[in-house]
Known about the structure:
- By secondary structure, this protein is an alpha+beta fold.
- It has two domains: 2-187, no CATH class; 213-353, Distorted Sandwich (Glucose Permease (Domain IIA)).
- The chain has helices spanning 2-18, 20-30, 73-85, 121-125, 138-143, 152-164, 168-187, 338-341, 349-353, and strands at residues 33-37, 42-49, 55-63, 68-72, 94-95, 109-117, 134-137, 145-146, 213-215, 218-221, 228-231, 234-237, 243-245, 250-259, 266-277, 282-292, 299-300, 305-309, 319-328, 331-335.
- The strands form three sheets. Strands 9, 12, 13, 14, 15, 16, 17, 18, 19 and 20 form a ten-stranded antiparallel beta sheet that branches. An eight-stranded mixed beta sheet has the order 5-3-2-7-6-4-1-8.
- Strand 19 (319-328) and strand 20 form a beta hairpin.
- Helix 3 (73-85) packs across helix 7 and helix 6 runs antiparallel to helix 7.
- The chain is globular and about 60 Å long.
- The N and C termini lie far apart (55 Å).
- Bound molecules: zinc ion (ZN).
- Residues 215, 231, 233, 235, 321, 359 line the site of zinc ion (ZN).
Amino acid sequence: xxxxxxxxxxxxxxxxxxxxxxxxxxxxxxxxxxxxxxxxxxxxxxxxxxxxxxxxxxxxxxxxxxxxxxxxxxxxxxxxxxxxxxxxxxxxxxxxxxxxxxxxxxxxxxxxxxxxxxxxxxxxxxxxxxxxxxxxxxxxxxxxxxxxxxxxxxxxxxxxxxxxxxxxxxxxxxxxxxxxxxxxxxxxxxxxxxxxxxxxxxxxxxxxxxxxxxxxxxxxxxxxxxxxxxxxxxxxxxxxxxxxxxxxxxxxxxxxxxxxxxxxxxxxxxxxxxxxxxxxxxxxxxxxxxxxxxxxxxxxxxxxxxxxxxxxxxxxxxxxxxxxxxxxxxxxxxxxxxxxxxxxxxxxxxxxxxxxxxx
Length: 359
Ligand SMILES: [Zn+2]
């Protein structure tokens, strides 16, 4: 055991020493996640088991262009490798919307897809979106763009597949990531991906006992739209122009502006920023901003200014909408930000909540 441990440890150390730039860098930044943006509207499918034990896919939802998806590089590599070596194993039969018959597929599919963000208020607040096991056809996958903020090695391996249809880089990357994960599980070896940071307030210079929640996480009647919806974050009181900072170090996944599909007016979240914090196994989202102070792909330190708060999108008063998406076994799920910043909130916040109606 001792010997095995030492040899494993040595191989990790050697590996990190030999390949510090390619993989170690990617793993630290992105933890094996490939983030993609759709260039057109696409169908996402759910895998179901047929009576004979085979897998079949049913169309689950249609997401518009500019949707951010995520998939683990190992999942995508497994599917693409099979698609080349024994395609019948990923040519799952599928059922298209409005039809009952199962269609045979020659497309090939990749599963394990997660929807990170969608520019559609209704879709975003539906619980369907939180599923993490969507499947996507390989042609649709190939059309998607990798985001500027992916780990370099991961982005390059996907690029190589798209351009040359070769998987060499992705194969070795997936193998390396797999090995490091196993080492971590078996021996608790912590590489640089272990976070030592303690979360800070998203509102600059407003720490313990300073922030005021004006609306809580959870199901509620939407104050403007008058329908029941999941409120995926917490609303924090913040006047227009208040400095908004990244709560952990990480990388800016996207700066986005949501618009009404018909009127093209700024709607929903308005201007918002998504930051990924692989070391803390967290994604954070900051919405209704008046100005961006960062851009997609930028590395940020904890406490770095990323935006100014505002009142863009649907809302009744200026505030900061703050979300925390926590990594679990199958992906990330929006959880109550109070789990993270609860100790910084004013106790009287609950009382104020009955008088403030923000989105
Ligand atoms: Zn909100």
